[in-house]
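stage 2 :: seqdesign
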């Protein structure tokens, strides 16, 4: 990195302390809810937050490795600034024409969580194949994918319909795309439903549905157990109780996000200090 970049990537100790406390609190809440002592992956969703926030959590003492981003350009910029030891998750809405460059340009892209068509999966395959040709160290490292399922039936949400559509895409990934690994199924539950069931102490219908769909897919395809990715800041504890293997938590760790047009990958500095704490 250049000297200018090094200066821009200095971690603010007060901000780091708050982030570590927030991450620790979420981790503890997961442990308290995880009665079966399962391995649960926590993705720190860092979209619209500066690279220094990620570096603060990736550095000791937390040394967190799984971070999620929603926008390809932002992820691309951050991946060039930050260590390759980070395992990036792309969790945003996928555009078919962006899939190939996404998989080709970010070697430490660990997982794409929002695959919902065969065309998108095929383009991810092409991109990963090109990456493996260019960077031989990744030749045998598969790109993990989750198939997104629209369990809530909301028209504005992406995702496969539960049932045959989901099964067909899962089969396509597993049988025809050698550079991809089917990791499991993902859903974004209806927020209103999540709040309702939490206050009533009931299970979230979206999470229950995803478990049912996962079990059906596993029965049809056989092979290793597929994971469940469900639960965000508003409902991750409920998701853990329902058997989620992975939760995606952003604002509870990083604080409120700025408007997209105001977000900066590298924060401006003035007299060696940050102009704002950015994250609340």
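stage 2 :: out
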């Amino acid at each position: 990195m250049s000297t200018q970049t090094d200066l821009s990537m200095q971690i603010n100790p007060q901000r780091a302390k708050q982030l570590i406390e927030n991450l620790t609190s979420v981790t503890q809440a997961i442990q308290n809810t995880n009665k079966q002592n399962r391995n649960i992956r926590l993705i720190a969703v860092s979209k619209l937050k500066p690279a220094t926030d990620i570096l603060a959590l990736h550095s000791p003492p937390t040394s967190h490795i799984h971070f999620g981003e929603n926008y390809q350009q932002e992820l691309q910029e951050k991946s060039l600034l930050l260590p390759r030891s980070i395992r990036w998750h792309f969790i945003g809405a996928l555009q078919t024409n962006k899939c190939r460059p996404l998989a080709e340009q970010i070697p430490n892209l660990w997982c794409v969580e929002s695959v919902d068509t065969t065309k998108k999966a095929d383009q991810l395959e092409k991109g990963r194949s090109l990456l493996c040709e260019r960077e031989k160290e990744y030749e045998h490292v598969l790109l993990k994918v989750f198939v997104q399922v629209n369990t809530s039936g909301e028209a504005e949400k992406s995702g496969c319909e539960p049932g045959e559509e989901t099964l067909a895409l899962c089969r396509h990934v597993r049988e025809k795309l050698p550079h991809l690994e089917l990791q499991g199924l993902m859903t974004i539950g209806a927020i209103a439903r999540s709040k309702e069931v939490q206050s009533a102490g009931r299970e979230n219908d979206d999470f229950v549905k995803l478990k049912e769909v996962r079990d059906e897919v596993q029965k049809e395809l056989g092979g290793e157990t597929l994971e469940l990715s469900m639960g965000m800041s508003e409902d991750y504890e409920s998701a853990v109780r329902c058997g989620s293997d992975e939760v995606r938590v952003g604002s509870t760790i990083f604080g409120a996000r700025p408007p997209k047009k105001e977000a900066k990958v590298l924060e401006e500095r003035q007299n060696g200090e940050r102009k704002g704490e950015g994250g609340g």
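stage 3 :: structure notes
- The beta strands are 41-45, 66-69, 87-90, 109-115, 143-148, 180-186, 227-229, 246-249, 269-270, 273-274.
- The CA atoms of residues 84 and 261 lie 27 Å apart.
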